[in-house]
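Title: Prediction job returns without error message
Component: structure pipeline
Severity: low
Priority: P3
Assignee: unassigned

Description:
Job completed but the reporter wants confirmation the result is attached to the right record. Sequence as submitted:
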Amino acid sequence: MIQAALEASTRAASVALAVEGQVEGVHLDGSAAHASDLVPALERLCGARGVDPADLQLLAIGIGPGSFTGLRVAISTALGLSRATGAQLVGVSSHAAAAWRVLEAEEAGVRITVLQDARGGCVQTSSWQRSADAVQCIAEHALVPCAEAAQQLAGSARLLADEAGLRAARLASDDPRVVASPAPDAEAVLTLGARQLEAEGPTPPEALRPLYLRPFVPGLRPR
């Protein structure tokens, strides 16, 4: 089975390919444009493994929360690839993918809260628990005012956060609860997407949308 994944919720976008269970990923240059890099990166991975992109059977996509532009580009790219190849689509929370990178080495029942700077005076949070073979959401994605974040996170025993998230939440940079920084990648999206497909089936194309925790407001560039 040929499976692929796209994750572009952060500046460090990534692409992954699995051929008969063997996964390989590539992390793109954070200074480059997602729109021009995702498909070429996938084509290079396919070429290196000797497979045709047209034979894709599953395409998992990180749906956020995260970068407005990156998510729109990744989902648009996935929809186009699905129409061209017939690949089934699965949308995966980017927070779930970040949590999986920590929880995959833990026993079932271990929990972690993802904390991410959302800018505009807010942070984004969600909480996850290690299940038998993936992660389970135990506190839905939420947009929390920075002034309230420390109080709301007081009950979290473990945090997945980077310096920007901690600063926005007004937490100490050496908070002992922090275990890693939130870095979702396409390999984790692919792992969770394949398991989600088996458990729940594919995501209908019309339901594949970016997970925005506040309305998307396009900006205008000065001329």
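Comment from assignee: result matches the submitted record. The domain at 2-94+184-207 is CATH 3.30.420.40 (Nucleotidyltransferase; domain 5).
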